[in-house]
Amino acid sequence: MTLAEFGAPTSPPEVPSELISELRTIVGDRGWTSDPADLEPQLRDWVGYARGATPIMVMPKNASEVAAVVKACVAAGVPIVPQGGNTGSVAGAIPQGEILVSLRRMNRIRDIDAADYTVTVDAGVVLAEVQAAANEVDRFFPLSIGSEGSCTIGGNVSTNAGGTAVLRYGNMRDLVLGLEVVLPDGRVWDGLRRLRKDNTGYALKHLFMGAEGTLGIVTGAVLRLFPKPVEVATAFVALRDLDASIELLSLLRVATGDALSSLEVMPRIGIEIAREFDPEVVDPLSERHDWYAIVEVSGTKADGQTESTLEVALGEAVERGILVDATIAASTMQAKSIWRIRKSLVLNLPKVGAEVKHDVAVPVSKQPEFIRRATAAVEETVPGTRAVAYGHFGDGNVHFNLCAPLGMDASTFTARAADLHRAVYDIAAEYGGSFAAEHGIGIVKRSEMKRYRSPVEIDLMRQFKALLDPDGLFNPGKVLP
Ligand code: FAD
Ligand code: LAC
Ligand code: ZN
Q1: 216 Cα nearest atom in ligand 1
Q2: Which numbered atom of ligand 1 lies nearest the CA of 479?
Q3: What 3-state DSSP class applies to 326?
Q4: Does the C-beta of 130 come closer than 6 Å to ligand 1?
Q5: What distance in Å separates the CA atoms of residue 450 and residue 35, rounded to the nearest whole number?
Q6: E strands of 103-247, at which residues?
Q7: Model confidence at 30, in pLDDT bands (50, 70, 90)?
Q8: Which of 234, 275, 273, 281 is nearest to 390 (CA)?
Q9: Residue 145 Cα to ligand 1 middle (Å)
Q10: Confidence of residue 58 (pLDDT cuts 50, 70, 90)
Q11: How many Å lie between the centroid of ligand 3 and the Cα of residue 112?
Q12: Whose CA is nearest to atom 53 of ligand 1?
């Protein structure tokens, strides 16, 4: 599909050549490119929704340069799209002729304070670098997502990223203490406070988290750190059935003293896909089962208790008939090999053929029922559709992804995407769920906002947008319907 088919502006904005010259001067020779070879990877998203266009990508190196870029663009009435690692799942960072502002040269860790359990970073720092910096001072930054080697803190903030450790540590919104933001009028808001308590009026930082670049450009953040887990126990378990996932979650939270950091569920087809495309993936269990989970428990004390606690808890789950089989990783290598199944599934799913994706949230206990009903609904809509429902079950977050029936060509399947979306999202809505749990709206889900969010909510969002960005120059055509 093209961005225009998702409802993006059909004609690119006019960009005066004087503005291009001004931007080049602001960021200097090393701070911009118009070379098609450099731009190509920044103009397509990894899911393959769309290809974009831009006359220039500027790469400012500090907040003052970002502010100058913003002022120049706003004075010329030319729109802007901010971009971090371009790993977003809803094509939110893809421009359609706008000026592309990449934060990736803003990659400095400004300050790390082990006593305060905080780290202050530029927005363009890659997530894995923050994790490594925390590790060096015996601390832990818990955000954990498959793209952590290339996504940036600014992108994580702007999408309110989730991932596999939300159950224990919360999503990005819970991990941010302070922000620095360049506003659409070019002012820099310095909200880089490293306070746990700060009830000074409206919580402005929350407005920019999850805003996907539509309200300003995040240039810095103060993040919370945690004690470093020194013992981590990882298990791969076979569930009695889908309902057993919720029983397991309840049991493990209590039995581990709430030290459960991940509970990721996947169906048999998930392992088969991972194995088909990745020869290094091994099935850790000898028998085949319908549903599996990866379970991780971590502890900050080196007393050898973490693994034995998990072992006892899983034993109880087997006795109670929640699990039919389980294996605990005996080494870090084995734990990596278990997580590899999960990573390979995500990366290889698009290779199975046409894919129609859903990133749904429902109340935790409703996930099994949701999956059963949604699977029946998509079967009725397009018979033979292969549902691959996996995700962060500790958070009620199901990636309900659909592959074309065997033998059906890609375009025939994706032509039915709107009907499949309707079937799935309507069921999620019945449970008070969300059609955009952790990946955001971008351009791809914009049209769903009107159906699933009330006029009051949309009106309030539009008022905030108009207040901060009256000319609509920040990431136009994204998020708001
Ligand atoms: P980009 O893709 O560059 O941008 C995302 C959005 O934020 C865009 O709208 C962009 O305009 C805006 N933006 C970026 N930087 C700024 C800034 N500094 N200021 C203002 N706006 C900005 N996501 C999850 O939540 N959980 C997962 O488990 C997960 N797993 C993933 C696994 C893989 C293999 C991949 C490829 C992606 C995964 N994602 C996941 C999605 C993605 O990695 C996250 O959305 C990530 O937070 C995006 O960061 P980024 O720097 O790449 O942002
Ligand atoms: C994951 C991404 C797709 O959970 O959100 O792997
Ligand atoms: Zn996810």
Answers
A1: 20
A2: 9
A3: strand
A4: no
A5: 38
A6: 109-113, 118-122, 139-140, 176-182, 188-191, 217-224, 226-227, 231-239
A7: very high
A8: 273
A9: 10
A10: very high
A11: 28
A12: 155
